[in-house]
Structure formats: C-alpha cells, structure tokens
Amino acid sequence: MTVRVILTDIEGTTTSIDFVHQVLFPYASRMLPEFVRRHQQDDEIADILQDARTAAGEPDASLDRLIETLQTWIEEDRKVTALKALQGQLWRRGYENGDFTAHVYEDAAACMRRWHADGISLYVYSSGSVAAQKLLFGHSDAGDLTPLFDGYFDTRIGHKREADSYRAIVAEIGAAAGDILFLSDVAEELDAAAIAGLQTVQLVRDEQVEPGTHRIAHDFAEVEL
C-alpha cells in the first residue's frame, strides 16, 4: 500500500528512552515544587493543578499533597494528561535555559528530513503533551526539526493503546487510514493502530523491546514505505 502520511511515536522510536528517563523526568521532578508554588495562581497552571486533583481523585488536595502526588506520578511514568502538561511547562524552562538539548537518533532525523522532502506528511503521536513534543523537536541535537511536521497529537485525543484514538487521528489528518504508517516501539500501540486500519512498523532498537506481530525495523533506515 502507498504511504502518504507517517505518524511517529517519540520515546524509544525517534528518541532514546534513556534521555526521557534519565534527563527529562529527573529535571521535571527536581524543578516541580518551586515552579508550582511560584505559579499556582497563573490561570494555565491553576487549571492544570485542578485537573491533576481530579485525576488523583482528591479534588481538595493541598498544594503540598498535590506536589507529592505529581512527583510520584513522574517516578511511575504515569500517563496522566495534567502531569504531561505540567512537565511540558518545566521542560520549556530547561530547553530555553540551555540546561539540555533533546536526543533524536541520527537515523530518525535523516529519514524524516528525506521523507518530508519527498512530500510525505509527518505527524507525531506521543503521551507527552503537544507542547513538550514541539519543545523536544525544536531543541534537538539535530537542530530544529519542527518544520518537518504537519501536526502533533497527545493523550487529549485518546490513549495510545485504544483503536478509537487512531480513528480520531485519521479523521483529523483527513487521509485514508491505509495510507498512514504508524511507527512505535510498543506492540500494544501498534495493535490498536492496526485495528483502526493503519499500516504499522515496530522499531526494535534494542533487546529490551518485546517484538509483536508487526513488521520490524531496527532503525528508521530499515523502514520500508
């Protein structure tokens, strides 16, 4: 089948899991208490914090209790939309202050540039917030990659292991499901995408990835369109 659109995951696919877990998560956890206390009255942050209270099932949680909960969620890598939005705010400070740049695999950057030049539309779907996705690709080791992408999706459109999320993405993109290729390292995400009619390739960059039933590539250069 023809591939007109590529939808890609980030963690473990375009970007090392180690960067996320050893750089981004510890930075967010370390900076979170001071940031939340300073900005809790800002409209955007206040809304995020209230969403976090709702997600925790503690609508009246104190600020100290909420900070403790958010830091626990970071440790557990919980896919909570409010947490992801807050992490995006914290990471923005880190990128803009030059505290770090984002890891992107050389093969991923090179292939995405080539696909874009060939007229293939590129989109991102990650559990990290759209803001965090744009920051990562805008401040990558390979430079600003954001001009390559036509759009971004996060868990606001649905969770990544649910077929309806991919149906919603197909509707947003406006292409036929069969013309879209989804790249991810997680077999369960690819299963959901396949149910929705998307083409799939699993990135197996190391032995820790559990292969599923999908086509496999060990890097982006092995992805056949």
Can you describe this structure?
The protein is an alpha/beta fold. 48% of the residues lie in helices and 12% in strands. The chain contains 8 helices and 6 strands. Strands 3-2-1-4-5-6 form a 6-stranded parallel beta sheet, sandwiched between helices. β4 (180-184), α8 (187-195) and β5 form a beta-alpha-beta unit. α1 runs antiparallel to α3 (63-76). The termini are close together. The model has no long low-confidence stretch (mean pLDDT 95).
With strands numbered from the N-terminus, the spatial order across the biggest sheet is 3-2-1-4-5-6
Instruction: Supply the helix-strand structural class.
Output: alpha/beta
Total number of beta strands: 6
- What radius of gyration results from the CA coordinates? 18 Å
What's the mean pLDDT score? 95
Helix proportion: 40-55%
Which residue ranges are poorly predicted, with pLDDT under 50 across at least 5 consecutive positions?
none
Q: What's the N-to-C terminus distance?
A: 8 Å
Largest sheet: 6 strands, parallel
The H/E string reads EHHHHHEHEHEHEE
Proportion of strand residues: 5-15%
Task: Estimate the global geometry from the Cα principal axes.
Answer: globular
